[in-house]
C-alpha cells in the first residue's frame, strides 16, 4: 500500500505479509537495498482487518470510501471484489467508530469466506518453492505483471502465460463431511473415483477448503483419504474468475 499521496512526498510503502515469515521477508528485502537509503521496519503498532460485506450490505463501497480518512488504510481488497476491503489501523483503534454498524467476527469466519471463494493467502496456502504463481491464480488477483522487468521465475511464468496451457489450479472444494479438528496433512493426495491422482489438498476447515487440482478431473467425483476413510469432495470454478478464463 502506498502511504505517500504525491510524488513530491518522501515515498512510504506499507507491505502486508504473513506474520510467520516477517523476519525472512525483512532479510530478503535488505539483500536488494544495496546502498540505497531505504529504511525497512516492521510496523508492530498496526493491526490488520478484513472488512467482508454481509448479505445485506447495500452500497458498502460508497459508505466505506467516506470513512477512508478514519484509518491508515481503508481500501478495496486488491485481489478481488468478493474479498471486500482491507483495513489497517493503530492497535486498539475503535473499529465501530471507523465503520459504524460493523460486527467483529473471528479468524475462522474470514478463512471460511476466502476458502469459499478459492482465495489463497500466506505460506500455508502458497508454500514457498512449491506453489507456482499461475497455478495459484495470482494472475487473476493482480499478483503478476506481464509488462514489468525481470523477477525471479519471470521467464517460466511469462512463457506459461503466453502458451495458455495451465493444467492445474487452486480451486475451492466442498467436503461431504466436516474435516477433523486436528487437520489434514498438507499435500494429502486427492483421487478420482477410479483411483487416478487428481491433485493435492492445500488448506481448509469445516466443510470448506482449497486444493490444487488437475482441471481435467474437476467435474468428476473426487475423494480424500483421511485416516483410512474416504471423504468425498466437489470442486467448483469461482464466479469472480474472468469469464474469458477457459484454461
TrEMBL record:
Coiled-coil spans in chain: none
One cellular-component annotation, GO = mitochondrial matrix
Keyword annotations of the record:
Mitochondrion, Transit peptide
Which biological process, per GO, is one annotated for this protein? iron-sulfur cluster assembly
Segments forming domain CAF17 C-terminal: 167-243
- Name the predominant localization: mitochondrion
Where do the TM regions start and end? none
Q: Where in the cell is it found?
A: Mitochondrion
Instruction: Identify this protein by name.
Output: CAF17 C-terminal domain-containing protein
Species name for this entry?
Phalacrocorax carbo (Great cormorant)
Show the taxonomic lineage: Eukaryota, Metazoa, Chordata, Craniata, Vertebrata
